[in-house]
Amino acid sequence: MRRRRFISLIGVAAVASALAPFTAHAQPSGQVRRVGVLMASAQRDPEAQARVRALEAGLRELGWVEGRNLRLDYRFVPDAGRLRAQATELVALAPDLILAVATPVLAGLLPVSGALPIVFVQVTDPVGGGFVPNLARPGGRITGFTTFEFSIGSKWLEALKEIAPAVKRVAVVFSPDTAPFAPLFWQPVVAAAARSFAVAPMQMPVRDA
Question: What's the pTM?
Answer without folding.
Answer: 0.71
